[in-house]
Design brief:
The complex is a heterodimer.
Chain A lengths: L2 H49 L9 H10 L9 H19 L17 H21 L3 H32 L4 H6 L16 H15 L11 H4 L10 H25 L5 H21 L5 H25 L1
Helix pairs in contact in A: 1-9, 1-10, 2-9, 3-4, 3-9, 4-5, 5-7, 5-11, 7-9, 7-11, 9-10
Chain B lengths: L1 H12 L3 E5 L8 H5 L11 E2 L8 E5 L2 E2 H13 L5 E5 L1 H5 L9 E2 L10 E3 L6 H16 L5 H7 L1 H12 L13
Helix pairs in contact in B: 1-5
The chains are: A mainly alpha, B alpha/beta.
The complex binds iron/sulfur cluster.
């Protein structure tokens, strides 16, 4: 054996090891994010209970729910499209999480490659996956839920993207890393949220964020009392467990994206703090508001947040 | 493995999602158990909208032949492990409707009932007692009605056939279990 082959195998081994370490890091990172997301959901349930003058479940209730659901014995599947839809639904937000600066928590640097176009594409994979699975489910409630979910998506994406575009116009970049570099990490005066005229775009996007997270008053797609939980109607056991995990991951992804664009999220830790703050604001509104009818919600979303965000965008570009 | 199973049973007992099949007046006492006075969510017990998401089916009131079919369909759609609670005198022995031509006097001939709550109607305190009892039974692994239903399938199906006069199958042609 000559030296060249030895060197060749050695570098192959090193490459393999590097890939292994990277995979492990990605898995740990995604696991951590889902765990924090589930913790947020625990806060949500406790908070809502306290607002309603109840004791409420323990804060680790979502973990118990997920263990129970994943340990269910039968899984009522429909066909392979149903399974594929569920996997898409979970995969979308997980892929999105990779491109947010939260990944510095385990020392990854995928976020340097994250740009807005990529992220906007990845953001719709999750909801579309679950819409696909729900429509295969063939329940009439599911069909109503899918219709509502897709029309709501149309409703909140417009103001949300207009708000993000204003930031893009101000900073002249699509890269997330440069957007957060243009703000200060802890000083609120240095955040896009509190700068004129970007504050208009931020307020528009913040109202739309309530729809992105499908919290009240924009939770038409999963209205449990009206349409028997809509898109979730055919999901039981392990599928519902996957859906809870998807909800946890997408909470982190959506709030993280907003924190990066408007609150100067630069590293993992400060972004997580900002995510918690944003989440508390969101669930305070969720706890006291009712639910719009689907047509009202659509009108509201395309009226107020859109006008405010558009104004912000126009003032940023032309003033 | 045993430890792990214990943990899973514990998790199951602390996260009971119910499908309230409110066939009669007995459902009246559930809202107090749900809201701030008794607050069953502190045990992780929540109402769910569909059978697919539920762990427990609560039959609260008299069972007519017509609703029994729906109850069986709903029960068979639930993912195992699953439990049945017979709530109030009517599903236990017929209650005040015992001689009606339309009602079924005993639910446990047709479905494996894990727990009975007597009373016409059971008050919210009895409901809370029922929930804590059910949690204990699940945590200890004692409530195994769903296994009985598979094991004694012939018995239950025969009873159902005698009542309805035909076999209950899912509408898409699959057999029910
Ligand atoms: S047991 Fe009493 S309260 Fe319950 S359904 Fe029968 S009659 Fe009504």
């Amino acid at each position: 054996m000559n030296t060249a082959t030895v060197v060749g195998t050695a570098s192959m081994g090193a490459k393999f090891l590097g890939a292994l370490v990277l995979t492990l890091k990605v898995l740990i990172y995604l696991f951590l994010m889902v765990m924090i997301g589930l913790f947020l959901m625990g806060i949500y349930r406790k908070f809502t209970a306290r607002v309603q003058y109840r004791v409420g479940p323990p804060i680790w209730q979502p973990y118990i729910d997920v263990i129970k659901l994943l340990s269910k014995k039968d899984a009522a599947t429909k066909n392979w499209v149903f399974d594929l839809g569920v996997i898409m639904g979970l995969g979308g937000p997980l892929a999105l999480l990779l491109f947010l600066p939260l990944d510095t928590i385990v020392g990854l640097n995928f976020h340097t490659k994250g740009d807005l176009i990529l992220i906007l594409y990845l953001a719709v994979v999750g909801p579309l996956g679950f819409a696909l699975a729900a429509s295969v489910g063939a329940s009439p409630w599911g069909a109503i839920g899918v219709g509502r979910a897709l029309s709501m998506m149309l409703g909140y994406e417009l103001p949300f993207i207009l708000g993000l575009l204003a930031v893009v116009a101000k900073d002249g970049t699509l890269l997330l890393q440069k957007v957060s570099a243009a703000q200060s990490m802890w000083n609120p005066a240095g955040w896009h949220y509190f700068q004129w005229p970007l504050i208009l775009a931020a307020i528009g996007a913040h109202i739309a964020l309530q729809g992105v997270m499908s919290e009240k008053p924009f939770d038409q797609a999963i209205a449990p009392h009206e349409i028997a939980s809509g898109i979730m109607v055919e999901f039981g056991g392990k599928y519902l467990g996957m859906m809870l995990l998807m909800k946890a991951a997408s909470l982190m992804a959506e709030l993280g994206l907003f924190a990066v664009f408007f609150l100067g999220g630069t590293t993992a830790w400060d972004t997580i703090v900002k995510i918690f703050a944003l989440f508390i604001i969101a669930i305070s509104f969720d706890a006291v508001l009712g639910r719009f009818r689907p047509d009202q919600a659509f009108t509201v979303l395309w009226k107020w947040p859109t006008i405010i965000a558009l104004l912000g965008l126009l003032l940023t570009v032309f003033a | 493995m045993v430890e792990w199973l214990k943990l899973v049973d514990k998790a199951r007992s602390r996260s009971i999602w119910m499908l309230m099949y409110c066939t009669g007046c007995g459902a009246m006492e559930l809202p107090p158990a749900m809201t701030s006075r008794f607050d069953m969510e502190r045990f992780g017990i929540m109402p769910m909208a569909t059978p697919r998401q539920a762990d427990v089916i609560l039959v609260t009131g008299y069972v007519t032949k017509k609703t029994l079919k729906r109850i069986i369909y709903a029960y068979e759609q639930m993912p195992a492990p699953k439990w049945v609670v017979s709530h109030g005198s009517c599903p236990i022995n017929g209650g005040v409707y015992w001689d009606s031509h339309a009602t079924v006097n005993r639910l446990d001939l047709f479905l494996p009932v894990d727990l009975y709550v007597a009373g016409c109607m059971p008050r919210a305190e009895a409901n809370m007692k029922m929930f804590t009892e059910l949690m204990d039974m699940i945590a200890k692994g004692e409530a195994r009605g769903w296994e009985e239903y598979v094991k004694n399938r012939d018995y239950y199906k025969e009873n159902q056939r005698k009542l309805f006069g035909y076999d209950l199958v899912f509408t898409d042609g699959r057999s029910a279990l």
